[in-house]
Design goal:
The chain has 65 residues and is α+β, with helices and mostly antiparallel strands. The protein has one domain. Helices cover 25% and strands 18% of the residues. It has 2 helices and 2 strands, in the order βααβ.
Length: 65
């Protein structure tokens, strides 16, 4: 589950502000659409998500048995 704030980046100027966006898009494209690093159509806009609060969970820390 994620909680936070999402912003739609509607043009290349807004996308250019995030120096890591291209790498993240490539990594997500590699994992999900077909494994080739494809990215979505830029005209559709991209979303930046800022989690708040950030909560993690490690199931390996649960007692065994």
């Amino acid at each position: 589950m994620f909680q936070g704030h999402a912003t739609v980046l509607e043009d290349a100027g807004q996308e250019g502000v995030d120096e890591h966006l291209e790498e993240v898009c490539w990594l997500m494209g590699t994992k999900y659409p077909g494994g080739q690093g494809e990215t979505r159509d830029r005209s559709a806009g991209r979303v930046v998500f800022e989690p708040s609060p950030l909560i993690t969970w490690d199931n390996l820390k649960l007692p065994k048995g």
